[in-house]
Write a structure and sequence with these properties.
mainly beta, Immunoglobulin-like, 3 domains, 6-stranded mixed β-sheet
Length: about 425
C-alpha cells in the first residue's frame, strides 16, 4: 500500500474491506505513525468510514490536518487498520472490540520532487547560461525496491504566473530574454543592452516517475523546508533561475592644467566605467565641483589664487587666477554622478566618481610667451620646440619661418620657470 498526499495537510490510502454477510454494515478506521516514533499518537487516526460491501471492496481513508512530511528517509511508516460493526469499539488505535479484526503492516510513503534556486552573474550586456536541475525522492509507487527518478520522458515546462506554458522562450520587458532547453534544462539569459541589476527570473517545472511535479508548496513554518521558487505569488519547489547583471562602476582620472600668469586655464577630468567605456557629463547628469565641506557647486573661489568654474554639461573646468598669483594652485575636485544602466523597474542605476583638476603655477617670466595659435604654454601643448631650453627671444627669431609652413602656427620656447 502507498500513502498519497491529497491536498496540503491531507493524506489518503485505500484498503479492501467488507461488512460481511451477517451485520450488513461495518466501520473502518486507520492509524499511521506519521512521526515515525513507534506509537500511534493522538491525531494520527483517519476518519471512520462506513462500508456496506458484502464482498471485499475499496474503502478510502482520509487523514486531515497532518503536518507536512518532508523527511525523505521515512519511506516506510507503521500502519494499523481496524474494522468493526460498532464504530465506538475502534475509535482508538488500541482497545477491546467485540467484532471485527485488526491488521498491522508497513505502508509506503512517497514524496514529490524538488528543484533548487540557481543564480548567475555577468557584466552588462553579457549573455549568461546555467542549468536547472531536479531531484526525485523515495521509491516508485507500490515498489519498495525501485528508486524514484525524474521522468525524462516529459519535457520541462516554464511556469508563468502559476500556469505551465509550452513556450521555451520568455521575454521580460526591460530586462531580457530567457531560453530553456526543455529536455536538458539548459537556460540562457540575454539581457537588454542597458539593463543592470537582479532580474525577475524564470520558473521551471519537472515531474517524477510517480507523476508528481515540483509545483507543490512546502510548509516552511512547520517543517523548515524553504520553497526554492519565491518569485511568483504562490511559492513552490519548482526550480528557479535568477540572473544578475552587474552594474559597472565608474572612476575618474585626474588632469593637470598649466598657463601663464593672469591667463585663464582649462582642464577636463575624464571618467570611464569598469568595462572600459568613456563616461561623459551631460545636461541630464551634470558634473559638479566639490567644495571643502563636501557640497556640490558650479564655482569655487580660493583666496589668493583664483576662481574655478565648471560647465556642468561638459565637465570643462576653468581656473581664472587673480592677477598676482604664481605657483602651484590648490586644485579642485570634480564629481560626476551618472546612470550606468536601468534596473528591473526601468529606473536609472547611478554611480558616482570624483577626479581632481590640478593647476600648475603660472609663469611670471616676461621673456617667454605662449603660443599665438593655441594660446597655451608651448612646452605643454606643442610637440616640437623651436628654441632650446634657456634661450631668449632674439637674433635667432627668423628661424621660426622654416617651421611655420609645416606646423601652421608659431611656437615660442617653453618657460624655464617650470
Amino acid at each position: 500500500m502507498t500513502l498519497h498526499k491529497a491536498t496540503d495537510g491531507t493524506y489518503q490510502i485505500s484498503v479492501l474491506a467488507t461488512a460481511g454477510e451477517t451485520s450488513g454494515v461495518a466501520y473502518v478506521h486507520g492509524f499511521i505513525d506519521f512521526n515515525n516514533n513507534g506509537v500511534f499518537d493522538e491525531g494520527e487516526g483517519s476518519d471512520i468510514v462506513e462500508t456496506t460491501n458484502s464482498e471485499p471492496g475499496l474503502v478510502t481513508l482520509t487523514w486531515s490536518d497532518i503536518p507536512q512530511s518532508v523527511d525523505t528517509s521515512a519511506t516506510q511508516l507503521g500502519f494499523r487498520v481496524r474494522i468493526s460493526s460498532n464504530a465506538a469499539d475502534i475509535a482508538e488505535a488500541t482497545g477491546l472490540a467485540f467484532t471485527g479484526e485488526v491488521e498491522d503492516t508497513t505502508i509506503q510513503q512517497t514524496f514529490p520532487p524538488r528543484g533548487p534556486k540557481v543564480t548567475t552573474s555577468g557584466n552588462k550586456g553579457e549573455t549568461q547560461t546555467s542549468q536547472v536541475t531536479f531531484t526525485a525522492y523515495g521509491q516508485i509507487d507500490y515498489d519498495f525496491t525501485t528508486v524514484n527518478t525524474i521522468d525524462t520522458s516529459k519535457v520541462y515546462k516554464l511556469v508563468v504566473d502559476g500556469n505551465e506554458v509550452d513556450d521555451t522562450t520568455l521575454t521580460v520587458a526591460g530586462q531580457g530574454t530567457y531560453t530553456l532547453n526543455n529536455t536538458t534544462g539548459a537556460v540562457t539569459f540575454t539581457p537588454e543592452a542597458d539593463f543592470v541589476g537582479t532580474a525577475t527570473g524564470i520558473v521551471v517545472r519537472a515531474w517524477d516517475k510517480n507523476g508528481a511535479s515540483t509545483g507543490w508548496t512546502a510548509d516552511t513554518a512547520t517543517n523548515g523546508l524553504e520553497n526554492a521558487q519565491q518569485i511568483q505569488s504562490t511559492y513552490t519547489l519548482d526550480s528557479v533561475y535568477i540572473p544578475t547583471v552587474v552594474a559597472p562602476t565608474i572612476s575618474g582620472k585626474d588632469v593637470t592644467s598649466t598657463g601663464l600668469q593672469n591667463v585663464a586655464q582649462t582642464g577636463t577630468p575624464t571618467f570611464t566605467d569598469s568595462n572600459g567605456n568613456a563616461v561623459a557629463a551631460s545636461a541630464t547628469y551634470p558634473a559638479k565641483l566639490v567644495d571643502s565641506e563636501g557640497n556640490l557647486t558650479d564655482s569655487i573661489t580660493i583666496d589668493g589664487e583664483g576662481t574655478y568654474t565648471i560647465d556642468p554639461s561638459t565637465g570643462v573646468v576653468t581656473f581664472t587666477t587673480v592677477e598676482t598669483f604664481t605657483g602651484v594652485a590648490t586644485g579642485v575636485t570634480v564629481q560626476l554622478e551618472t546612470s550606468v544602466g536601468t534596473d528591473e523597474d526601468g529606473y536609472p542605476v547611478l554611480e558616482t566618481a570624483t577626479a581632481t583638476l590640478h593647476s600648475n603655477g603660472s609663469c611670471n617670466n616676461t621673456n617667454y610667451r605662449r603660443c599665438e595659435h593655441c594660446s597655451n604654454h608651448c612646452y605643454r601643448r606643442c610637440s616640437n620646440r623651436i628654441y632650446r631650453y634657456g634661450d631668449k627671444l632674439g637674433s635667432d627669431f627668423p628661424s621660426l619661418n622654416q617651421h611655420r609652413h609645416q606646423l601652421n602656427h608659431i611656437f615660442y620656447r617653453f618657460c624655464n620657470a617650470y
